[in-house]
Design brief:
The complex is a heterodimer of chains A (527) and B (392). Chain A contains 19 helices and four strands. Chain A has 527 residues and is an all-alpha fold. Chain A has one domain (62-518): Ribonucleotide Reductase, subunit A (Orthogonal Bundle), CATH 1.10.620.20. Chain A has a two-stranded antiparallel sheet with strand order 1-2. Chain B has a single domain (107-388), classed as Ribonucleotide Reductase, subunit A (Orthogonal Bundle), CATH 1.10.620. In chain B, 60% of the residues lie in helices and 0% in strands. Chain B has helices at residues 15-24, 49-54, 107-130, 139-170, 174-204, 213-221, 226-237, 242-270, 278-305, 311-336, 352-369, 380-388. Chain B starts with 14 loop residues before the first helix and ends with a helix. Classes of the chains: A mainly alpha (527), B mainly alpha (392).
């Protein structure tokens, strides 16, 4: 065959320089934007009212194999620590019992968020038109798989090493019973994947990841370390290293719609709704997990909240998006009011409903009560007195025949569930900003705790028709529900949930619960 | 205030805190069951780490078969459509969580494998370039086939990668979702490897164009990939059922068209034209193809085709989908035959008898690995005859 000019040039070049040559990831990445093409049927299954631009770039500039290299290095460090150093230190069994219970909730619920974010970013990968933007979302799809596996690994690790594996070993089967689950599913599952694609990005990336991963994934590592848990910081900080990419994806989503004049009509409303949805659950639940689920306290939740949610996110992060017409959510001020008391209100209800958990809750000790009063003046008169009364009635002892839910009924403090957020509230007792609002629609009553959620429901009631736990279990006896929902340990009779973490305290069984003859009622029926 | 610790103090290393923690811990474990997800039915004899970390991560209400949750989705789409629903696919299952990746990959082993492939790729390219292997490639093969037609095949893989976006969103099980995402990721990796090879050639061969312009023109306007392009577009954008997307892509189009192009054209012919570079990349693509075959065979045959209640119905649907997608794939192959006019003829290699034998290999494999599994009957001779009409 005749040698071409190009082959001759290559031969000549080689004679001069025989240096080995390769190709780096950036040299491939710079062509990605040209990988797509136009055609008639081009569409997405997940359309959006926003117009996403075709030219949007992504900041991390990864190709598939370089992504794998980077993540593999991080995995080696993380799993190496877990499987070698921490195992040799018996670290999994040196965690304070209260915190070990907190991690049953935290790792499991974060896992659900990460899992649903796989689908959420799959949807955005489908919706975006710019190949680089698709590429950024794709890397996030894989990240979310990583995080799902990592959160699972925390439970897996605690199952093997923690002294109370129940709840770590079967959370995926039993988590659905209780009052915290549906609200979690609302913010961490359906809010990420059901709706306008950009609205879902705002929920997941602009609020969930840019705002709440700081307190959830970063602050929790300080609380964990203080309480003897080195597993959680090892895993969660590795998760957090990917979150910056996700925040950048959220930023790029806004950039991709910024040139559309119509975007400003919707964006701030979507952001406001997304923020309120997220904070309505995370503000009380995270505060409760940190402060009531620990022996050693790091700092009051309200301070953490103000620093990361109000100042860092509401101020600095959203401020950076100001040039694209993004404003801090109008509901931020109301959320700030909730950050002080809402988690105390929620713990009161969560403890009252403890048999429907998949973890153990503990009343504050006298030492902790002092800490609460010092940091939240007025705490004792509102909450501490009630806990003293419950303790005096033997709420921790299976022989007492008393669970605090009975106290709520005796004292006529009905517990409602907000239809939109699915968060329980007790309007006659709460110190936070919740007030009862009730609407009738299609022959059914719906309760709401605040104006923001009520507005969302009034404009689109069909999106929030999910039954709450009181409606679902109405007429059912409590021990029956627990047994049916697998809320028992591997002996088939002892509850996973318990109202104490006392070393020598007796554990409640299904029989103890059955003796109470506690039957679920929907409080809305009485209205 | 005695319980508040200074920031930075750690309970595992501070002796006083350690003492308090250890005093609070019971002497014996409170449950005998120490395996996470012990309630999951393992596919093999024992629950694997893959199953422990993946199974039931998805919170699915029990009205989607296999789900463990009670109740409903808490927020729905505008108009009330649920987050995930049985109506997103025509196939039925008694358990959407049954699928298992035969390779038992979760994220860490998956990226570990791919990271090693990247390191090996880098080492290979350094060695290949330093000894000047590029000098042996036939210039026509290099400048026309690799530049234009391998370059255009990048878009085939990129389009199929995109077809996985909605499938990874819509599918109804956790093991499925992770498998689909990994398959999609492999497809974009294929597309990127093709561009990587072209960039590499551009560095070694002065004048070799790195730009994607010519390959894109070939893909979007040329005759050789016309049928392929239209099929890929339909799989990616015109198909709503997530199982049909996966079936059309991985059980019909890619095992036929993809296998012919990758294995029987680029891989088989490369060595005849002095090209020892392309097989390195095609072999990685073939590894991904093989892994995908394992995954999709488990999904469609083990789980859906053999479903105790819906197996017969599902196999009927799969045959119907094959009826729909096979002719398009045949058209894609027929159009692709035009490529043989672009390369120097090598008797017994690029001549009709050799092409026919290659097609026979592809269709024989497909019959054994796919069609027979759902009792799909087809006339191989007639199909190959149709395809060969494109061979001028």
């Amino acid at each position: 065959m005749a040698i071409s000019a190009a082959t001759k040039a290559a031969t000549d070049a080689l004679a001069v320089n025989r240096a080995p040559t390769s190709v780096n990831a950036q040299e491939v990445h710079r062509w990605l934007q040209s990988f797509t093409w136009d055609f008639d049927k081009n569409r997405t299954k997940y359309p959006t009212k926003y117009k996403m631009a075709n030219e949007t770039k992504e900041q991390f500039k990864l190709i598939a194999k370089e992504y794998a290299r980077m993540e593999s290095v991080k995995d080696e460090r993380q799993f190496g620590s877990l499987q070698d150093v921490l195992t040799r230190l018996d670290a999994g069994n040196r965690v304070h019992p209260k915190w070990g219970e907190t991690m049953k909730v935290a790792s499991n619920f974060l896992e659900v968020g990460e899992y649903n974010a796989i689908a959420a970013t799959g949807m955005l990968w489908d919706s975006a038109s710019a190949p680089e933007q698709k590429n950024g979302y794709l890397a996030q799809v894989l990240d979310e798989i990583r995080h799902t596996n990592q959160c699972g690994y925390v439970n897996y690790y605690f199952s093997k090493h923690f002294h109370d594996p129940a709840g770590h070993n079967d959370a995926r089967r039993t988590r659905t019973i209780g009052p915290l689950w549906k609200g979690m599913k609302r913010v961490f599952s359906d809010g990420f994947i059901s709706g306008d694609a950009v609205e879902c990005s705002v929920n997941l990336q602009l609020v969930g990841e840019a705002c709440f991963t700081n307190p959830l994934i970063v602050a929790i590592t300080e609380w964990a370390a203080a309480n003897g848990d080195e597993i959680t910081p090892t895993v969660f900080l590795s998760i957090e290293t990917d979150e910056l990419r996700h925040m950048a994806n959220g930023y790029q989503t806004v950039v991709s719609i910024a040139n559309d004049a119509a975007a400003s009509k919707y964006l701030n409303t979507d952001l406001n709704n997304a923020f309120w949805t997220q904070q309505k659950y995370f503000t009380p639940v995270l505060g409760m997990l940190f402060e009531y689920g620990s022996k050693f306290k790091v700092e009051p939740w309200v301070k953490t909240w103000n620093r990361w949610v109000y100042e860092d996110w509401g101020g600095i992060w959203i401020g950076r998006l100001g040039k694209y017409g993004v404003e801090s959510p109008r509901s931020l001020r109301d959320a700030k009011k909730d950050a002080y008391w809402a988690h105390h209100d929620l713990f009161l209800l969560a403890y009252a409903l403890w048999p429907t958990g998949f973890f153990r809750l503990t009343l504050p000790t006298a030492e902790e009560a002092d800490w609460f009063e010092a940091n939240y003046p007025g705490w004792y008169d509102q909450y501490g007195k009630i806990y003293d009364e419950w303790r005096a009635r033997g709420c921790e002892d299976p022989n007492s025949g008393f669970i605090p839910l009975m106290w709520f009924i005796e004292n006529n403090h009905p517990i409602y569930i907000d239809r939109v957020s699915q968060v329980p509230f007790c309007p006659s007792l709460c110190k936070g900003a919740s007030t009862l609002r009730v609407h009738e629609y299609n022959g059914k009553k719906h309760s709401f705790s605040d104006e923001w959620g009520e507005r969302m429901w009034l404009s689109e009631p069909e999106r929030y028709e999910c039954q709450n736990m009181f409606e679902q279990y109405a007429g059912r006896e409590l021990s029956e529900v627990i047994a049916e929902q697998h809320g028992v340990r591997s002996d088939g009779k002892t509850l996973i949930a318990q109202p104490h973490t006392n070393k020598n305290g007796k554990l409640w069984t299904l029989d103890d619960i059955k003796k109470l003859n506690c039957v679920f009622k929907d409080p809305l029926d009485a209205l | 205030m005695s319980v508040q610790v200074q920031q930075g103090k750690r309970g595992l290393t501070d002796p006083e805190m350690v003492k308090e923690i250890l005093e609070a811990i019971p002497d014996q474990p409170l449950d005998t069951q120490r395996k996470m997800n012990y309630f999951v039915k393992p596919r093999g004899r024992r629950l694997t780490e893959y199953e422990v970390l993946t199974c039931y991560a998805q919170p699915t209400p029990d009205w989607i078969p296999g789900g463990l949750d009670w109740g409903d989705w808490t927020q729905k789409f505008h108009g009330g459509r649920p987050s995930w629903g049985n109506e997103t696919t025509e196939l039925h299952s008694t358990d959407w969580h049954k699928h298992r990746d035969p390779a038992k990959r979760w994220h860490a082993p998956y990226v570990k494998d791919k990271a090693e492939e990247w390191r090996y790729t880098d080492r290979f390219l350094l060695a290949y370039s330093s000894e000047g292997q590029v000098r042996s490639i036939d210039p026509i093969w290099r400048d026309e086939v690799l530049n234009d037609y391998l370059g255009a095949f990048c878009f085939n893989e990129y389009g199929l990668f995109n077809a996985h976006s909605s499938a990874s969103r819509d599918c109804l099980g956790d093991t499925l979702r992770m498998s689909i995402a990994m398959i999609g990721f492999d497809k974009v990796d294929n597309a990127q490897m093709i561009q990587l090879e072209r960039t590499f050639l551009a560095k070694l061969v002065p004048g070799f164009p790195e730009s994607t312009d010519e390959p894109k023109r070939e893909w979007t306007q040329g005759a050789i990939y016309k049928g392929a392009r239209e099929t890929v577009q339909d799989i990616w954008q015109a198909t709503y059922d997530w199982n049909e997307i996966l079936w059309s892509c991985h059980m019909v189009y890619d095992p036929l068209f993809g296998q012919f192009v990758r294995r029987e054209f680029f891989q088989r012919l490369s060595s005849y034209y002095g090209d020892t570079l392309t097989p390195f990349f095609i072999n990685q693509m073939q590894l991904y193809f093989s892994q995908t075959k394992g995954i999709t065979s488990d999904m469609f045959f083990e789980c859906l085709g053999d479903d105790a209640e819906f197996g017969d119905y599902n196999r009927r649907m799969m045959r119907a989908w094959t009826d729909k997608w096979l002719p398009r794939t045949v058209q894609a192959l027929q159009d692709f035959m035009g490529i043989f006019t672009k390369i120097p003829t090598i008797p017994g290699v690029t001549s009709k008898d050799a092409v026919e034998a290659a097609l026979e290999r592809v269709f024989d494999d497909w019959k054994l690995d796919y069609a027979d599994k759902v009792s799909y009957k087809f006339d191989k001779a007639a199909i190959i005859k149709t395809i060969l009409q494109g061979l001028k």
